[in-house]
Amino acid sequence: MGTTMLTGWGRTAPTPASLVPAGTDEQLADLVRSAGPRGLVARGLGRAYGDAAQNAGGTVVDMTGRDRVLHFDREAGTVVVEAGLSLDRLMREAIPLGWFVPVTPGTRFVTVGGAIAADIHGKNHHVHGSFCRHVLEFDLLCADGEVHSVRPGDDLFWATAGGMGLTGVVLRATVQLLPIETSRMRVDTERATDLDDLMDRLTRTDDQYTYSVAWIDCLSTGRRLGRGVLTRGWHAKAAELSTKDRARPLAFDPRVRLAAPRRLPGGLLNRYTVAAFNEMWYRKAPRERRDEIQPLATFFHPLDGVADWNRVYGPRGFVQYQFVVPFGAEEVLRTSVEAFASAGHASFLAVLKRFGAGNDGMLSFPDAGWTLALDVPVSAGLSPLLDRLDELVAGAGGRLYLAKDSRARAELIARMYPRLGRFRAVRDKYDPTGVFTSDLARRLAL
Amino acid sequence: MIDALGNPQTVLLLGGTSDIGLAIVERYLASRPVRVVLAGRPSPRLDEAAARLTAKGATVETVEFDAAQTAGHQELISKIAAGGDIDLAVVAFGLLGEQAVAERDPAAAVELATVNYVGAVSVGVALATVMRAAGHGVIVALSSVAGERARRANFVYGSTKAGMDAFYSGLGDSLIGSGVRVLVVRPGFVTTKMTAHLEPAPLATTADEVADAVVAAVRRGRHTIWVPARLRFVMSGLRHLPRPLFRRLSR
Ligand SMILES: Cc1cc2nc3c(=O)[nH]c(=O)nc-3n(C[C@H](O)[C@H](O)[C@H](O)COP(=O)(O)OP(=O)(O)OC[C@H]3O[C@@H](n4cnc5c(N)ncnc54)[C@H](O)[C@@H]3O)c2cc1C
Ligand SMILES: NC(=O)c1ccc[n+]([C@@H]2O[C@H](COP(=O)([O-])OP(=O)(O)OC[C@H]3O[C@@H](n4cnc5c(N)ncnc54)[C@H](OP(=O)(O)O)[C@@H]3O)[C@@H](O)[C@H]2O)c1
Question: Annotated catalytic, B28?
Answer without folding.
Answer: no
